Amino acid sequence: LAKVYHTHLCFASVYHAACNGELYSRPFIESFEETPMLVAVLTYMGYGILTIFGYLRDFMREWKIEKCHIAREREEQKDFVPLYQDFENFYTRNLYMRIRDSWNRPICSVPGATFDLVERSSNDYNWTFEYPGRVVKDVINLGSYNYLGFAENTGACATAAGEVTVKFGVGMASTRQEMGNLDRHEELEKLVASFLGVESAMAFGMGFATNSMNIPALAGKGCLILSDELNHASLVLGARLSGSTIRVFKHNNMQSLERLLRDAIVHGQPRTHRPWKKILILVEGIYSMEGSIIRLPEVIALKKKYKAYLYLDEAHSIGALGPYGRGVVEYFGLDSKDVDVMMGTFTKSFGAAGGYIAGRKDLIDYLLTHSHSAIYATSMPLPVVEQIITSMKCIMGKDGTTIGRSRIQRLAENTVYFRRRLREMGFIIYGNNDSPVVPMMLYMPAKIGAFGREMLKRNIGVVVVGFPATPIIESRARFCISAAHTKEMLDRALDVISEVGDLLQLKYSRHKVLPSLDRPFDETTYEENKE
Amino acid sequence: FELLFHSRDSVKMAAGQQWVLVEMVQAFYEAPAYHLILEGILILWIIRLLFSKTYKLQERSDLTEKEKEELIEEWQPEPLVPLVSKDHPSLNYDVVTGPPSHRIIVNGKECINFASFNFLGLLDSERVKLKALSSLKKYGVGTCGPRGFYGTFDVHLELEERLAKFMRTEEAIIYSYGFATIASAIPAYSKRGDIVFVDEAACFSIQKGLQASRSFVKYFKHNDMEDLERLLKEQEIEDQKNPRKARVIRRFIVVEGLYINTADICPLPELVKLKYKYKVRIFLEESMSFGVLGEHGRGVTEHFGVNIDDIDLISANMENALASIGGFCCGRSFVIDHQRLSGQGYCFSASLPPMLASAAIEALNIMEEDPGIFRVLQDKCKHMHKALQGTPGLKTVGEPLTPALHLQLENSTGSRTNDLKLLRAIVDYSLDRQIALTLARYLDKEERFLPPPSIRVVVTVEQTQEEMEKAAQCIREAAVKILK
User: Fold this and answer.
1) Residue A165: domain span
2) What is the CATH number of the domain that holds A96?
3) A482 occurs within a structural domain
4) The CATH number of the domain where B392 resides is what?
5) Residue A402 zone, left/alpha/beta (φ > 0; ψ -120 to 50; rest)
């Protein structure tokens, strides 16, 4: 119980950027409400009961009282060292399997604002699935990362990609440095550089691999990497593969980062006290599990003061933040030249696949010659490249229409509206007011499965996350708002969420927000200042 | 400890009586003195631990604030990246305009393609392109999510089923990036403390997978089964010293079917014998041999007639013979299913775009309908290998059956940069005469056993006899002119 109380004290309620006022040009409102004490206790009890039942089930399976569906090792290899330890899979066997139908749901249409799910059922409590062949149509999609609504099969992007498929084919069969470098790739890189306002850029075929293959090229032995507590697995893997020393600072906590920087420079490397070769700070633009936005002005101020380098992973924030969709740097009104390495992915806001790194020309020249991906991995397929070029031009307004601009505005409006309505209903929502990723707390393990299933019954597809992606008592449902969602869809979704919230008693929040007058969006936020 | 003492006292009282507070207090008075003293000391110790500060390992030197500020002022980091000179050999890429198929336009010149891994010629197949187009019209381009969160499409499930059926295994799993396939598969099974025996010529993605897994890695000489057996015997002797530890350490052998760096085939039957003798599991990487070796293109297991269940995991990328993008692993469900929750490149990354999956399915269809192309490809490989023998100054490295062989300098100049310059001159000469070749690229400082510089020559089904003769002739002329 002492530990439970301690973890709650770590979360502040609401933070206004009144201090450091000159660094922020707009209010920075983030909140992570405390877990109510009763809920925490009940959640731990729930996990305890599940663990006891898990041991009971294992016992019954061992003694053949219950039918065992687990795949087994081959007879010929029974005397080999076991491939998995039994207790490693305890959580998977006994807790995850029971609610496995909330994940890996197959779909059979475009992952747009609505989609069609393939119906699947299970007769043996989720050990095996059957597909009767029916389709659940027009399920509202609150799970896919489709922030600007470019996941579509009609329109300019799809037509361009289609033409390229017929003309160029799909595969590449060679690496960038060998025979896989097409003129389209170089055009894409120039476009990305101009989109972000930097000197040059380089594109890669997979977002995860962009981090795990390029961080080792930038940092090595004798370097220090300062990484946020809640960084994505690709950043953690890249940091580990680089061989540098890694120190972790508390999530979005600038005092913790400053203390680590001071300690590092003053004391040098452990034991030998030699000075560090360089210090690289790894942060993300929007953290997708918390919905929080990095405090970029403060990070840049710290980086300049202590001469460190900043690696910004904008996987979720590129295209989704800022009045022109240029990401978190534009959102705070900062200069993109202050960020040493800007990284991002094309999967979320551009409806394609792949990642990029952008920055100064010498950085990109170095990556062109030393990146693992350029030398050993196949280059990006052309239909994907075409989709990115067309969607980026649309966002920039270069195709002559205002579709891009209107989508960005609609996303911002939808985000603010959705978050406000959920808060008014009494749910605990984490994160920044402007982030299109909305985590809603569920806490109890049974509610994870129940929420996913009840929402699907009412034709809404949501994403629920539990341990190990989140701390054990903080399981949540995560909504991703899209510019393709109309107000009617959002209203319908909100009504259903409220209904299910009452059914499952999810309205934990003790800070009641008074409902404001019915003005779904705040027009003043994005007015252009005419100097 | 407490309960033990109390239970001894309770034996004096009636067994089976429930604990009541009064009796607890009575037991407290009746307990012997040493018992109370011991318990008192324990409680005091717990209180002390609760209130003592945590012990920090790093020594705190007593520098004044001013000294700290000075140190911070003085510290100068290295530049983020070292400067790359303008004429670095890998800085200027060859630019391809137009589709990367059999006839390819490189740097403005139209050439015959001897450099892309398009073994079965499926990059320009009309059927594959149309299938991809219809998939694009249905699903769009991107999947907007990882497999766990609405990123699983019915085409992914279909592709996994088809691959498992084609390779005659129980299950298959797809990745969206060829490099990430084996690099995510190895760390999912092999953890810190486990032992992996790897061939020296293993490709870079295997090396990255091993680095991510933090296991002990032991390299054996390329294709040398005696060296491997020696290492296995040494390990067995170690195990006998510590049998309890040996019972939990997992052991793996990682080999490639057809090595990309040396273009030869691994001796699979001997490996399977060693597997059962020393109880090690085999992971087979088949990127170059899938769709090339074997009667039906099932790879090196079919080539040698080895039972596929004897291999624990087969991993391959779909970027060579299947002319799509991505990779897959196949094997028994017992092994493959684990990656669905612990393969990093699977769980934390967006899934393969559905149009690429449809293209791969159609390519598989073509492979299944016409198994004669594998024979044709193997004949062409043998022909090319023979045609390139006897080139003055260059030696052909690779087996006759391999579709991607290397041409290395017979006598090296002594410096790698000069060797690369000579080979690049040969490549440029061939490009001028409409033969597209490429240098094999490596990351010099990161490769564990850096292969010597070489030119990569790729044989595809679409090349005709005349074209192959022309290429061989051109390379011979270049070698005579440049390497004299």
Assistant:
1) 156-396
2) 3.90.1150.10
3) yes
4) 3.90.1150.10
5) alpha
User: Is B350–A233 a contact, with Cβ atoms under 8 angstroms apart?
Assistant: no
SS in 3 state form for chain B?
Answer: CHHHHHHHHHHHCCCCCCCCHHHHHHHHHHCCHHHHHHHHHHHHHHHHHHHCCCCCCCCCCCCCHHHHHHHHHHCCCCCCCCCCCCCCCCCCCCCEECCCCCEEEECCEEEEECCCCCCCCHHHCHHHHHHHHHHHHHHCCCCCCECCCCCCEHHHHHHHHHHHHHHCCCEEEEECCHHHHHHHHHHHHCCCCCEEEEECCCCHHHHHHHHHHCCEEEEECCCCHHHHHHHHHHHHHHHHHCHHHHCCCCEEEEEECECCCCCCECCHHHHHHHHHHHCCEEEEECCCCCCCCCCCCCCHHHHHCCCHHHCCEEEEECCCCCCCCCEEEEECHHHHCCHHHHCHHHHCCECCCHHHHHHHHHHHHHHHHCCHHHHHHHHHHHHHHHHHCCCCCEEEECCCCCCEEEEEECCCCCCHHHHHHHHHHHHHHHHHCCEECEECCCCCCCCCCCCCCEEEEECCCCCCHHHHHHHHHHHHHHHHHHCC
Interface membership of A362 toward B (CB under 8 Å): yes
Q: What is the ipTM of this complex?
A: 0.89
**A475–B contact, CB cutoff 8 A:** no
In this structure, are residues B348 and B371 in contact, taking their beta carbons and an 8 Å threshold?
A: no
- The partner residues of B168 in beta bridges, in order of sequence, read none
Residue A463 touches partner B, C-beta closer than 8 Å: yes
Contacting residues of B for A3, CB less than 8 Å apart:
none
For B213, the domain range is 141-369
Predicted confidence pLDDT, tens digits, chain A (531 residues):
444 433 333 333 344 443 455 677 778 888 888 888 999 999 999 999 999 999 998 888 888 877 777 777 888 888 888 888 877 788 888 888 889 999 999 999 999 999 999 999 988 888 888 899 899 999 999 999 999 999 888 888 899 999 999 998 888 888 988 888 899 999 999 999 999 999 999 999 999 999 999 999 999 899 999 999 999 999 999 999 999 999 999 999 999 999 999 999 988 888 888 899 999 999 999 998 989 999 999 999 999 999 999 999 999 999 999 899 999 999 999 999 999 999 999 999 898 999 999 999 999 999 999 999 999 999 999 999 999 999 999 999 888 888 889 999 999 999 999 999 999 999 999 988 899 999 999 999 999 999 999 999 999 999 999 888 888 889 999 999 999 999 999 999 999 999 999 999 988 888 755 555 444 444 443 434 433
Q: In B28-146, at which residue ranges do the beta strands (DSSP E only) sit?
A: 96-97, 103-106, 109-113
**Non-local CB neighbours of A276 within 8 Å, separated by 6+ positions:** A222, A223, A224, A264, A265, A268, A269, B75, B77
Clarify whether residues A290 and A199 are in a common domain: yes
> Which residues have a Cβ under 8 Å from the Cβ of B359 and sit 6 or more positions away?
A170, A171, B128, B129, B131, B132, B135, B323, B324
A171: which chain B residues are within 8 Å (Cβ-Cβ)? 118, 122-123, 319, 322-325, 359
Q: What residues 133-162 of chain A have any CB closer than 8 A to a CB of chain B? A: 141, 143-146, 150-153, 157-158, 161-162
Q: CB distance from A370 to chain B under 8 Å?
A: yes
- Is the domain of B219 the same as that of B336? yes
Domain co-membership, A191 together with A336: yes
A106 close to B (CB below 8 A): yes
Which one of A78, A103, A208 would you mutate to disrupt binding with B, by most B Cβ within 10 Å of its Cβ? A208
Tell me whether residue B309 is in a domain. Answer: yes
For residue B172, the domain's CATH number is 3.40.640.10
Q: Which residue of B has its CA nearest to A217?
A: B81
